[in-house]
Amino acid sequence: MESEEFKCPMCLGLLQDPVTIPCGHSFCMNCITGCWDNEDQKGVYSCPQCRQTFTPRPALGRNTMMVDMLERLKKNELQPTAEAHCFAGPSDVECDFCTGRKYKAMKSCLSCLLSYCEVHIQPHYEVPRLRKHKLVNATSQLQEKICSQHDRIIEVFCRTDQKLICMLCLMNDHKGHDTVLAAVEWTDKQKKLLQMKGDNQNHIQQRDKELQQTQEVLHTLQVSAQEAVNETERIFTELISFMEQKRSEVTESIRAQERADVSRAEGLLEQLEMEITKLKSRDAEMEQLLQTEDHIDFLKSFDSCCPAPVSEISTIAFTPHLSSTDILTPAVKKIKKMLLKLRPDHKSKVSASRSGGCSVPTAERDYS
């Protein structure tokens, strides 16, 4: 497939006997000669592509370099790489010499202040005068490599002012200063940068080690705290279970005592009610006898109305108010005392270790 760079802009065919005019564009010898022949009457000759004018008519010389490149292209010896001949993207540096859609530049010339693709950079490798030009990797910041004051290449570093300068700056404003070639300063700074990079890597390793140690301490703290929480949960679960059991036992004891006392009290009530009934009946008989006016009848009935001796009723010994303090077993009292020690206002005898270890009060397990 024919390359667009080797086509004549006039006949659109592959360049035949190529010549390059002063503006840099190339044409077939016959094409440009015929064009300029028609402009002889005007005496002003122009480039058919960029319309730049020339006076007088430029002499045309055969572009031998282009001829060689065309020969190689015809023989498929010139095999442009995909990278060299791919079109420039938004982030690429464009070739300043390409026309139409531009290819990606491979090199920039600090002497020409232009960037070239792999095809258009070839003259800098083959033309003796162009070989002296300073080539760098393609960059869009060419002006930053040129002294804004003297429009010369920056190639000197002033250590006194810590500034990049050109040769004219060295002879004028920086005369007598401590200066070296930029390449020499680059070598020294490279060594310093390598040393700084080594120091920085040592700092990274040290911080990584400290980070790992901190993570281990954090993990130990979390595990220790979780173990303390689990142990505390287990202890308080046992305490709650034991206290529930004792509460049930104490409640049953209170109810049993209540039932015994109530049974005895109810028996006493029944006995007292029977006794009161008898006494009331006798009281009614005595009231009736008191109403008798017949002396004989009164005296006959008097002995039967004499009250019999009142029998002694045994009293029931019980405490009318039940106190939980009197009923609690010694084991429950021991737990109550232990729980009081766990109150926030009680001074704990157990302190947490400052090294990250956790400790909790240990409840007595002898609940019996």
Question: What keywords describe this structure?
Answer:
368 residues, mainly alpha, Herpes Virus-1, three-stranded antiparallel β-sheet, 10 helices, 10 strands
Largest sheet: 3 strands, antiparallel
Which bin fits the share of residues in helices? 40-55%
Strand arrangement within the widest β-sheet reads 6-5-7
CA radius of gyration is 60 Å
- Rounded mean pLDDT score: 80
Beta-strand residue fraction: 5-15%
Shape by Cα distribution: rod-shaped
Spans with pLDDT under 50 lasting ≥5 residues?
A: 77-84, 347-368
Number of strands: 10
Please give the alpha-carbon distance between the first and last residues: 103 Å
- Counting helices, strands and paired strands, the structural category is mainly alpha
Spell the H/E element sequence: EEHEEHHEEHHEEEHEHHHH
Q: Figure out the total of helices.
A: 10
Overview of the molecule:
The protein is rod-shaped. With 368 residues, it is mainly alpha-helical. The chain contains 10 helices and 10 strands. It is 47% helix and 8% strand. The protein has a 3-stranded antiparallel β-sheet, with no helix packed on it. Helix 7 packs antiparallel against helix 8 (295-305).
